[in-house]
Amino acid sequence: MASVNLGSLVQSYSIFNQASRTNSKSFPLPRSFPFNPLKNISSSTPKRHSFTSLPSISSVLTKEDAVMEEDQDPQLPSFDFKSFMVQKGNAVDQALDSAVPLRDPVKIHEAMRYSLLAGGKRVRPVLCLASCDLVGGKESMAMPAACALEMIHTMSLVHDDLPCMDNDDLRRGKPTNHKVYGEDIAVLAGDALLAFSFEHIAVSTVGVTPERIVRAIGELAKSIGTEGLAAGQVVDISSEGLTDVGLDHLEFIHVHKTAALLEAAAVLGAILGGGRDEDVEKLRKFARNIGLLFQVVDDVLDVTKSSKELGKTAGKDLVADKVTYPKLMGINKSKEFAEKLKSDALELLQGFDPEKSAPLIALANYIAYRQN
């Protein structure tokens, strides 16, 4: 079966069918989502979905990450998400350190490594590795792609922090790249990370057919170009200061700016791990939901946490007069939306091996309840 065209799937859809359209200024939305994560949403607390066929999750990153006792199967072992993230994160860090050594020209490699190895949650590479395992693949098959995703994510952060973009001074609790190395080197370091990410997948992936490697590279390219990250970023920039932006417009931004790269992580892992097309598409939709979930939570944290708690500048969206979910929906409705996205994401994992699904279930919970 031919590779699915990301452009026909990663498309904007309407969250609210009436209110956001009548009084909103919106960019053309040539895409249409194949599902609606807010279908049947109400003002009451969303119904908890029971996953009695799945393992219990005992995520210790936050107390909220644990699935309620009544939804757990006592016959299945609990899953330690913190240990999993630490183990996989360390493996990714070692792979990144090896992939981008300090060599000539020293300055640009220093700048690349400064941001690439500055820490972070490694959500995208871990999602890639977990998706590969879910469909029966080995970690080695997806590790170069996992590293490539983190390189691209780091590039987006370096460029996003530039004075011509968000003009930020703090990232992951440290001075931003351009504050340390200057704007010129920061731009070039981001460019180098982007270019090397594709080279790394192409030359370092082992145990995978060339057809699947090419398919994965194509998916990754679309996720960061004008059908993904770049599209979301430019619409986001163009929306600053607008007073009549609706939820469909905001959704377009974040489906492309945030969700697309998370979607690519899950899709790349499934493709490189040898997954069937139907499994790839389930994971595509799962990641799309948690991608939007990530952004909704991020918007809420931006207005409810301090810079010290976040490790980055808090309240910057408010200062920049950016459109956010709390601004359009309020904090409580935004939290309700986040819960709905999480529930819909978890439904898509039913039918997979319960033990192998555990990391993805815990990841959705972690994204929903993270504090920074």
TrEMBL record:
<protein>
    <recommendedName>
        <fullName>Geranylgeranyl pyrophosphate synthase, chloroplastic-like</fullName>
    </recommendedName>
</protein>
<dbReference type="InterPro" id="IPR008949">
    <property type="entry name" value="Isoprenoid_synthase_dom_sf"/>
</dbReference>
<keyword id="KW-0414">Isoprene biosynthesis</keyword>
<dbReference type="Pfam" id="PF00348">
    <property type="entry name" value="polyprenyl_synt"/>
</dbReference>
<comment type="pathway">
    <text>Isoprenoid biosynthesis; geranyl diphosphate biosynthesis; geranyl diphosphate from dimethylallyl diphosphate and isopentenyl diphosphate: step 1/1.</text>
</comment>
<comment type="pathway">
    <text>Isoprenoid biosynthesis; geranylgeranyl diphosphate biosynthesis; geranylgeranyl diphosphate from farnesyl diphosphate and isopentenyl diphosphate: step 1/1.</text>
</comment>
<keyword id="KW-0460">Magnesium</keyword>
<comment type="similarity">
    <text>Belongs to the FPP/GGPP synthase family.</text>
</comment>
<keyword id="KW-0479">Metal-binding</keyword>
<dbReference type="InterPro" id="IPR033749">
    <property type="entry name" value="Polyprenyl_synt_CS"/>
</dbReference>
<dbReference type="InterPro" id="IPR000092">
    <property type="entry name" value="Polyprenyl_synt"/>
</dbReference>
<keyword id="KW-0125">Carotenoid biosynthesis</keyword>
<dbReference type="InterPro" id="IPR053378">
    <property type="entry name" value="Prenyl_diphosphate_synthase"/>
</dbReference>
<keyword id="KW-0808">Transferase</keyword>
